[in-house]
Design brief:
The complex is a heterodimer of chains A (108) and B (113). In chain A, strands 2, 4, 5, 6, 9, 10 and 11 form a seven-stranded mixed beta sheet that branches. In chain A, strands 1-3-8-7 form a four-stranded antiparallel beta sheet, with no helix packed on it. Chain A has 108 residues and is mostly beta strands. The model of chain A has no long low-confidence stretch (mean pLDDT 95). Chain A has no helices and eleven strands. Chain A has strands at residues 4-7, 10-13, 19-25, 34-39, 46-50, 54-55, 63-68, 71-76, 86-91, 98-99, 103-107. Chain B is mainly β. In chain B, 0% of the residues lie in helices and 51% in strands. Chain B contains no helices and eleven strands. In chain B, the strands form two sheets. In chain B, strands 2, 4, 5, 6, 9, 10 and 11 form a seven-stranded mixed beta sheet that branches. A four-stranded antiparallel beta sheet of chain B has the order 1-3-8-7, with no helix packed on it. In chain B, strand 9 and strand 10 form a beta hairpin. The chains are: A mainly beta (108), B mainly beta (113). The interface between A and B is medium-sized, with 23 and 18 residues.
Chain lengths: 108, 113
């Protein structure tokens, strides 16, 4: 099973700032089958990024993903008020598909 | 636009079976996609439970495999989750989804006597 470790646990930033979220895998994630989700209370997970760097339909271009192998990053270039949420990375390269423990992005 | 809607009992007794259905609209369950179940216990992260293809092929999380059954009903354009021998640790919001971009709103299932 591939374990995903996200850091930091909590990120406190202000609107307009840049956010950098990290996800490290316990083994290489082949073909960059790595996704990022945004999760707000009472809402379903929202797919942001798939294939490590491809934005899902309708996702603003302030969200970008990068990385390969075992190290991946989600960057939000300029935070909007609606971006404060919990973010999860997920690997779907091999079963069982696993999620990281989440990063809480909170308003400073 | 594909839409998914979970339904089922919100309360299940310990040792009983949790049964949920996911109705798919705006698209065919027979399309070339995997249909998945994911859960989130209160205050915790996301856990993939398993998935099914319209042909009936399934993949399950090994941690739940002995208790999980996912099935598809093409005539009703829906798929279902059965989780047996439940305990309080199975209390969670259960989501159905089409891998990985369309999700239901989720349904809270509480295991309690």
């Amino acid at each position: 099973e591939i374990v995903l470790t996200q850091s930091p646990g909590t990120l406190s930033l202000s609107p307009g700032e840049r956010a950098t979220l990290s996800c490290r895998a316990s083994q290489s994630v082949s073909s960059s089958y790595l996704a990022w989700y945004q999760k707000k209370p009472g809402q379903a997970p929202r797919l942001l990024i798939y294939g490590a760097s491809s934005r899902a339909t309708g996702i603003p271009d302030r969200f970008s993903g990068s990385g390969s192998g075992t190290d991946f990053t989600l960057t939000i270039s300029r935070l909007e008020p609606e971006d404060f949420a919990v973010y999860y990375c997920q690997q779907y390269a091999g079963s069982p598909y696993t999620f990281g423990q989440g990063i809480k992005l909170e308003i400073k | 636009q594909v839409q998914l809607q979970e339904s089922g009992p919100g309360l299940v007794k310990p040792s009983g079976t949790l049964s949920l259905t996911c109705a798919v609209s705006g698209g065919s369950i027979s399309s070339s996609n995997w249909w998945i179940w994911v859960r989130q216990p209160p205050g915790k992260g996301l856990e993939w439970i398993g998935e099914i293809y319209h042909s009936g092929s399934t993949n399950y999380n090994p941690s739940l495999k002995s208790r999980v059954t996912i099935s598809v009903d093409k005539s009703k354009n829906q798929f279902s989750l059965n989780l047996s021998s439940v305990t309080a640790a199975d209390t969670a919001v259960y989501y159905c989804a089409r891998r990985w971009n369309y999700w239901g709103q989720g349904t809270l299932v509480t295991v309690s006597s």
